[in-house]
Amino acid sequence: MISREIVDKLTSLGFKEYEARVYAALVLYGPSKAGEISLRSGVPRPRVYDVLRDLIAKGFVERTQGSPTYYRAVDPEHVIGELRDRYVRSAEDAIIELKTSKRRYEEKQLPILYLEGEWSIRNNLKLLVERTESDLIIGLADGRFGLRFRGILSKTNEKGVYADIILLKPSRYSVEHLRLYGRVYAVDPDKVKSRARNDELSLLADKLLSSIETYSVKAVLVSDGRESIMVYHDGGVLKALNIRLPFIPLFQRTVLKWVAEVYGSVL
Question: Which superkingdom, per the lineage (predicted)?
Fold first, then answer.
């Protein structure tokens, strides 16, 4: 008889109880006739033929032609490898389906998501970049902050999307690296602030990219004018708002584009 331990290990890999018994019997005892398999595996003979047929269909058992018919197990290494690959594919498909369903629900129920912590923010920035179809505009209060997420920005190039990047505090190092992902505009925040008193758009731009307010904005990313993520520091804690209300991202995009055109110099 086949040991319980072997059967349990095979069922944990996806075999059904009788399949595990039959396959183990063929591996341990070699090519066998149906009656011998039934005796060695403990599977009732009327069920053995159904189990063998299923194992053959899965590619785990082979049979000879002629009479009597013999059955033999496909090499365990191949079978276990196939089961592992199927498991990984199923796991990946499940993750994609769950994330897609979750995203659809959130988009319907939660047009504004509150994010906290770098891992959560990084993951949502990655998803925003992946969803970008043609237009990505980025406002950065500090180029060094943008470099923390350059691995995510590199995905824009893979899609053939090159961002407009507005940089308030450019440095040679940050500009050199951010240029890889799009066109970089240097903007002097003092010029924006000096006109904020008399110019409504300048006032909005100053507040959008302000680094001295209670909530210190670090970055604003707007994807296709439909979705945005605003990253900010609150008491030393990194937080963000993921916004999918169409009007707000479009408004943010308009302000950032205007800043680039009026105040920006291409580096």
Answer: Archaea
